Predict the 3D structure of the following.
Amino acid sequence: MALLNFRRPETTPADTVNPELEAFLQGFSMEVMPRTAAKVEDFRDLLPKGTRVYIAHIEGTPIEEMVATAKRLNAEGYPVMPHFPARIIKDKATLADWIARYQGEADVKQALLLAGGVAQPAGDFHSSMQLMETGLFDGFERLHVAGHPEGNRDIDPDGGDKTVMEALRWKQAFSERTDAKMALATQFAFEAGPVIAWADRLAAEGIDLPIHIGTAGPAKLQTLIKFAIACGVGPSLKVLQKRAKDVSKLLLPFEPDAFVAQLAAHKARHPDFGIEAVHFFPLGGIKTNATWTRTHGGTSGIPAAQA
């Protein structure tokens, strides 16, 4: 099978691409880890130049591997957005050291700030707000923070969203006093309805941070269910569970077509809808996800408005 090559692209026939979906996929981003990125010989064979690439920092990953991955991706033409999970960072000195390494060795100008999935903080930080308050991210061009369309029981154990909403209001206020562009990056979901309702509620509450909605790339159903449970995906998990009961579909790869197309159609009808971009978690592999985005019109990289 020929490898996709964006330096010598094979065009997708215009009449096979959904124009609403194509527009919605402009500015899509993708998430990698150092170990998954290392399996890709050259990202320029897979992703359009300028595609934002997040680098997930899993507890235990040495900072040297994170920085090396960022340096490599930046050299290949991709703006990189490494994760800064508060609960795995020991103290302000450690945070300053990480930032200095990213900036000095990999020209990093963007960051995703989040609490992180560990239960017990390793040191002084337990939230992304504390990271922002250090002032160490002053000068960054773009800062993303976590959004939770289906709630987050780590933050609101009762299943509500009181604490999450309070944090979002704080982040909204921070966005109004920082020079960095800000957005909400979310965990992956599988059902469009709750996502639309959540985005509309944020707008009604005066929270107008652009949303970069998370979605899982094509993957085996069993793989998606495993990751969904591990990552705390909420009500939309039932979409996968329903599919798992259909023996005829059990062995087929699950693709995000319906989820993304429904959001794209809603965005087309409501241009002011808060979702600005799609963020892919390539749970079935980076190459598989890149192929899906290309065949559905995702070839444009980052629009100027999101740069």
Observations:
- Residues 1-14 have pLDDT under 50 and may be disordered.
